From TrEMBL:
InterPro entries from the UniProt entry: ARM-type_fold, Ub_conjug_fac_E4_core, UBE4, Ubox_domain, Znf_RING/FYVE/PHD
UniProt protein name: Ubiquitin conjugation factor E4 A
Species this chain originates from: Bombyx mori (Silk moth)
A Gene Ontology term for the protein's cellular component: ubiquitin ligase complex
Record keyword DNA-binding present: no
GO terms of molecular function: ubiquitin-ubiquitin ligase activity
Catalytic activity entry: S-ubiquitinyl-[E2 ubiquitin-conjugating enzyme]-L-cysteine + [acceptor protein]-L-lysine = [E2 ubiquitin-conjugating enzyme]-L-cysteine + N(6)-ubiquitinyl-[acceptor protein]-L-lysine
């Protein structure tokens, strides 16, 4: 290197202009003895041990057994002759020359070295500087003042050169600084991260825009490399350095803004883009696929339970590690100051808002590939984000009655978007969510603005953001799990029924394997223990908070804060008006609790004894009793019905349980129903929501309605077994008996009416399906299907499987409904024998008894009746029990005999024959007594019908075509019907059957004039008949 271009001349205090030397002039070196003091020698030794360079060409000679290698800085040695030691003055020049040195190996002494030590010939600037810093560590504890000063000076030089390299990368050709910095983060030595951080701090200490820009450019490249590495990895093989490295960025005030900017998508309303950043890529690590088009990476043999168990354990450990570290990253960002906290909350809020499509009903039902799955983040992303947010919630929900949770303001979701910024609301999409109660309306039908606070705390925001994330993550995945389970069951049944068609068998096996892999993956993702534990804690606290909000009353003046703040005692039934704050709480807050509790029962491993005892069930039952039976606090009847599912999930062991609870857990749950302070409200609340599903005025599909009622039957069956709750049923029945003619029919009366509606529909459907199955099985067994084309044969198998599924559904629910009717007829026979109900119960029993014991019963005999849950013997016994219970009532016996469609004197004889065969002999003698009473009344009825056969049309009920005994006029349609007919109609539908106008019994008017004419005509007809009979005799 010529002196003209030597960068060290300026550092030495000499410039080319001061000492011009022609390029071709020889340099004369004069040897001058140099006195070396002790300090210089000490510094030189440290330099050789730390930086591995020297200006003494003989530095490693004359040292026996010395394997030391050094880099000889020839140009600096020439410039500093006759000195052969590096002192403080020359060190900066020496270090800079070493960093710029290209051919390091050719400058290593001793000459002739064949194997170079890696740390000696390191060419990468940052790795070399880090190695030097590591070497310097050995002098940290030195007491020698010269050494201490040397260490300080050398440390300063190391960072000064690191900053110079970042600011002037052009000086260092072919060096990729982002890869070198990433190498520091990958280094096993803990000192590497502090070195990385110190470089950042040293660079920004200059406080100039150029330094900031260079830092951002370099660190963006580092983050891109980390992002690429994450996307190449999976949950199990993620490199160890990545999570600590991202945490380093998050916790450093200079790097956190760079990390956040890298995480913020350019199109903020595109949900899928939130997965593309480093944070998004980490949150996407899961047992579930990253995209809708990706394959499952785990559970290659999903049928192998032993292998599944080992894989689950590994995945849960990895998930726990990931989410714990992601929580540290989020916490680091939150602690980086108000601006960064606001930025993270904004990112989280916009991420959730951009991915709301995930939570739509159509999205869950659309399958694995849909618009939502292609345009939104993955299931794993949302589950992991929820797990992180749950950890952030733990400080205020450590227990169900944690006083800090009462600081949550329920009006957060009512803030309109234009006010969000001023009120510190970052999740601005909640304003459009359906809430527990709809907004009030003014006289013009316009919504009245809901109450909102002046501003909202972090606790409030963290709570609602977490609940929304649970709604889009846990709830969606739980519903996908249950749907996948149903599809898997159908596929397995179809596989069993597929026969020997090779093409069909292979397709079904492939589908079954795929569904099983998906099922165990979803289950594994949902059952990570730490997330579940935190979820239980949050929702136990949420139960308490919701009840505390619900029992408050509105004040006359607006408030600055609507949080409950204090814990009030709960008294039931709640008689105060519902507060307007319930018009601000999104339904998903309550729905999330339902999902967790029902998931615990539907999914093996989703709950533990510890979770039960930890306190979720007690506040959850209080929550259910507060909202389930009270439409003034929960407008949506479907959501109230879902709360009944919570009750079913809280039950102790049930005979149908596939995964029974432990004895301790079952005992604890039984005590819940025996000792809960508000348990007396259970039965009234259940009946209220049972009836409410029918009385909504909304279109409720039959299948959905019965899905809602199925868990209610199980709860009622359990409560019936507890004397205290059985007495509640009896008390409601007695109230119904005393108020049968009330303006608003008693809840028990409406309940019984709907039970009969359900029984008629379900048993009729079940019998029709069983007859179809018999026809199809007969054709299959006869060999008729074998002669069909392949696609027709496959279609037949599919139809048989589908009809079998429907039959099983109808048989199970029909059985439960009939059993409930058996219990109620035994305890409240007078209700069933009231004129409003008696004809329907009698005709129902006659119809189904005839189908089950009559000549057509052979049409119901199918192969594998247990598979379809078809138990006709049990149903016959239940029907006969009801005949016996009600048979002492003359009105009932009259109704049985009046049923011209199904009743005949032979009906009970056929029943006796079947009872003998199925073990029902104990009912035969009593049933004969009922049959005799019915026969005598039937004969009398026949005589009366002959007498009244020619009644005028105006005397006949327009609906039933029978003589009206108590005619009434409907106010809007002006139609005259029998009182009993319209009363029966209003139990199910409170509207005029002729024009659908709202109607209640207090609005109908007796037609006394017509009533007198009818009864006069009947008396005259009977008198004439009697005289005619006497004359004939």
């Amino acid at each position: 290197m010529s002196q003209q271009f030597n960068p060290f001349l300026g550092l030495l205090g000499t410039s080319p202009s001061e000492t011009p030397i022609p390029e071709d002039s020889p340099i004369t070196i004069t040897s001058v003895p140099v006195q070396v003091d002790e300090e210089t020698e000490i510094v030189n030794n440290i330099v050789e041990n730390v930086f591995y360079f020297t200006i003494n060409v003989n530095a490693v000679e004359n040292r026996p057994n010395n394997e030391k290698q050094l880099v000889y800085l020839e140009e600096l040695a020439e410039a500093t002759k006759p000195r052969i030691h590096i002192d403080f003055e020359a060190l900066e020049q020496a270090l800079f020359e070493r960093l710029l040195l290209q051919d390091v190996e050719s400058n290593v002494i001793p000459k002739g070295t064949k194997v170079y030590k890696e740390h000696v010939i390191e060419k990468h600037v940052f790795l070399y500087l880090f190695n030097s810093l590591q070497n310097l560590q050995s002098y940290n504890n030195s007491k020698n003042m010269v050494e201490k000063r040397a260490v300080s000076k050398m440390r300063e030089l190391i960072f000064r050169n690191a900053v110079t390299a970042l600011k002037q990368p052009a000086l260092f050709e072919d060096q990729d600084f982002s890869s070198q910095l990433l190498g520091l983060l990958q280094h096993a030595d803990p000192l590497s991260q502090s070195f990385f951080t110190d470089i950042v701090n040293a660079l920004v200490s200059d406080c100039d825009n150029e330094s900031q820009a260079q830092l951002k450019a370099t660190m963006n490249e580092v983050l891109q490399k980390i992002n690429t590495e994450v996307k190449k990895s999976n949950l199990i093989n993620l490199p160890n350095y990545i999570l600590p490295s991202v945490h380093l960025f998050a916790s450093n005030p200079h790097l956190a803004p760079i990390l956040m900017e890298e995480s913020e998508p350019k199109v903020e309303n595109n949900g899928r883009l939130y997965q593309d950043s480093v944070i998004g890529a980490l949150l996407s690590l899961s047992v579930l696929p990253r995209t809708a088009l990706s394959l499952h990476e785990f559970f290659e043999q999903p049928m192998d339970q032993a292998a599944n168990s080992l894989i689950e354990t590994s995945i849960w450990n990895a998930l726990s590690h990931l989410n714990n570290n992601m929580q540290r990253i989020f916490l680091g960002l939150l602690k980086c100051g108000p601006a960064m906290r606001n930025r993270l909350l904004t990112w989280t809020g916009k991420c959730l808002s951009a991915n709301v499509a995930r939570g739509k009903l159509w999205s869950v039902q659309a399958g694995e590939i849909s618009a939502a799955t292609l345009n939104c983040v993955s299931d794993g992303f949302m589950l992991n984000l929820g797990a992180v947010l749950l950890q952030l919630c733990m400080p205020f929900c450590a227990s169900p009655d944690d006083p800090k949770l009462l600081k949550i303001d329920p009006t957060y979701g009512a803030v309109p978007p234009e006010e969000c910024a001023s009120k510190s609301v970052h999740l601005d999409s909640l304003h459009n969510e359906t809430c527990l109660l709809p907004p009030r309306e003014d006289e013009n039908g316009q919504s009245i603005k809901r109450p909102t606070a002046e501003t909202y705390s972090f606790v409030t925001e963290c709570f609602f953001v977490t609940q929304k994330c649970i709604d889009l993550g846990v709830r969606v995945c739980a519903e996908k799990l249950w749907q996948c389970g149903r599809e898997l069951g159908q596929a397995q049944r179809a596989l069993a029924d597929a026969g020997t068609a090779p093409r069909l068998l292979e397709a079904l096996r492939t589908r079954t394997h795929h569904l099983m892999t998906r099922f165990v993956s979803l289950r594994c993702a949902l059952l990570e223990k730490n997330m579940l534990t935190n979820l239980h804690r949050l929702q136990a606290a949420t139960c308490t908070w919701l009840v505390q909000v619900a029992i408050r009353t509105d004040l006359d003046t607006p408030l600055s804060n609507y949080a409950p703040m204090t814990l009030l005692p709960v008294e039931m039934p709640i008689t105060t008006p519902a507060p307007d704050t319930l018009r601000c709480i999104p339904e998903f807050v309550l729905e999330n609790i339902v999902v967790l509790i029902t998931m615990a029962r539907r999914t093996a491993g989703a709950t533990t004894e510890e979770a039960d005892i930890a306190g979720l069930l007690q506040p959850a039952l209080t929550l259910v009793l507060t909202f389930m039976g009270d439409s003034s606090r929960t407008y949506n009847p479907h959501l109230r019905a879902r709360l009944a599912e919570c009750l079913e999930a809280m039950l102790p062991n049930h005979p149908d349980n596939q995964q029974p609870l432990s004895s301790l857990a079952s005992f604890y749950r039984e005590q819940l129903f025996k000792e809960h302070p508000h348990r007396s409200q259970l039965v009234p609340c259940l009946l209220d929501v049972f009836v409410g599903i029918e009385m909504t005025g909304q279109s409720v599909q039959f299948e959905q309605k019965f899905n809602y009622r199925r868990p209610m039957y199980l709860v009622m069956e359990f409560l019936w077994g507890l004397e205290e709750h059985r007495e509640s049923f009896s008390q409601l029945a007695r109230e119904a008996e005393s108020n049968m003619e009330a303006v608003h029919p008693p809840i028990f009366l409406r309940f019984v009416n709907l039970l009969m509606n359900d029984a008629i529909f379900l048993l009729d459907e079940a019998l029709g399906n069983m007859a179809q199955i018999r026809t199809m099985q007969t054709a299959q067994q006869s060999g008729a299907w074998r002669n069909l084309p392949v696609h027709e044969r496959e279609q037949n198998f599919s139809n048989l499987s589908h009809i079998g599924m429907l039959a099983r559904f109808d048989n199970i629910l029909g059985r439960d409904t009939i059993r409930m009717l058996v219990r109620l007829t035994a305890h409240a026979p007078h209700v069933f024998c009231h004129p409003t109900l008696v004809d329907r119960i009698a005709s129902m029993l006659n119809y189904f008894l005839l189908n089950l014991v009559g000549p057509n019963k052979k049409n119901l005999k199918v192969k594998d009746m247990k598979e379809y849950e078809f138990d006709p013997a049990s149903t016959v016994l239940d029907i006969c029990r009801m005949y016996v219970e009600l048979g002492n009532n003359e009105r009932f016996c009259n109704a049985v005999s009046d049923d011209g469609r199904s009743y005949s004197p032979q009906l009970f004889t056929l029943a006796e024959t079947v009872l003998v065969r199925i073990g029902g002999g104990f009912l035969i003698s009593t049933l004969r007594e009922v049959a005799e009473r019915v026969r005598l009344l039937a004969e009398q009825k026949q005589r009366d019908e002959e007498i009244l056969a020619n009644a005028p049309d105006e005397f006949l009920d327009p609906i039933m075509s029978t003589i009206m005994l108590d005619p009434v006029v409907l106010p809007s349609s002006r139609t005259t019907v029998d009182r009993t007919t319209i009363a029966r109609h209003l139990l199910s539908d409170q509207s005029d059957p002729f024009n659908r106008s709202p109607l209640s019994m207090d609005q109908v008017k007796s037609d006394t004039e017509l009533k007198e004419r009818i009864h006069s005509w009947i008396a005259e007809a009977k008198k004439n008949s009697s005289q005619s009979t006497s004359t004939k005799n």
